[in-house]
Specification:
184 residues, mainly alpha, DedA_domain
Length: 184
């Protein structure tokens, strides 16, 4: 299995980017940082996978009648949706680019772009700019973190433990609270 993964690493990266988006890019850049992948192909394949995935969600939005989708999704919040809709229509480029940086908004913005019948050429251009900016920021952060970790030397493992344990506890507490709220 490891051999298959090593032989087809960029194919698996592409499939991962289609399905998991930028969540896959972070470890891929780390693998490029430590020399297991080449940065340029990793970046290019990630841009392509993200772009195809986003375009899929855009076309899903194009197929949905705007009023039906919005009514079913946000029936009780009509005023809020009207306000957001007006803001979106006058700031499409900002929404497309900034949605990359706010977890949970990316797919919704792609669908809404389709629902609002934004020109695909304009959408594709602005979305591609957003993807490239976002992935460049993530890559730069990974490389900076890697350089900083190397500068820390032997204390890296201690710092990893200090960061990992509280993060794991926060995730477990979050899951526990969500389950408690669902029961009520």
């Amino acid at each position: 299995m490891i051999e298959l993964l090593e032989q087809n690493k960029y194919l698996f990266l592409f499939i991962g980017m289609l399905i998991g988006g930028e969540t896959i890019f972070l470890p891929a850049v780390y693998l490029a940082y430590i020399g297991k992948l080449d940065l340029i192909p990793t970046f290019g394949i990630s841009v392509l996978g993200s772009f195809i995935s986003d375009s899929f969600w855009y076309f899903v939005g194009r197929m949905v009648p705007p009023n039906d989708w919005l009514k079913k999704r946000y029936f009780r919040r009509k005023e809020l949706i009207d306000k957001i809709s007006r803001m979106f229509e006058s700031n499409v480029a900002y929404f497309l680019i900034l949605s990359k940086f706010f977890y949970g908004t990316r797919t919704a913005v792609q669908i809404i772009s389709g629902v609002k019948k934004i020109s695909y050429q304009y959408y594709a251009y602005m979305n591609l700019i957003g993807i490239i900016i976002y992935l460049m920021v993530i890559a730069a952060l990974v490389y900076l973190a890697g350089e900083g970790a190397e500068a820390l030397g032997s204390n890296v493992h201690k710092i990893q433990i200090i960061i990992t344990i509280p993060a794991a506890l926060l995730i477990l507490i979050h899951i526990w609270i969500k389950r408690l709220l669902k029961k009520k």
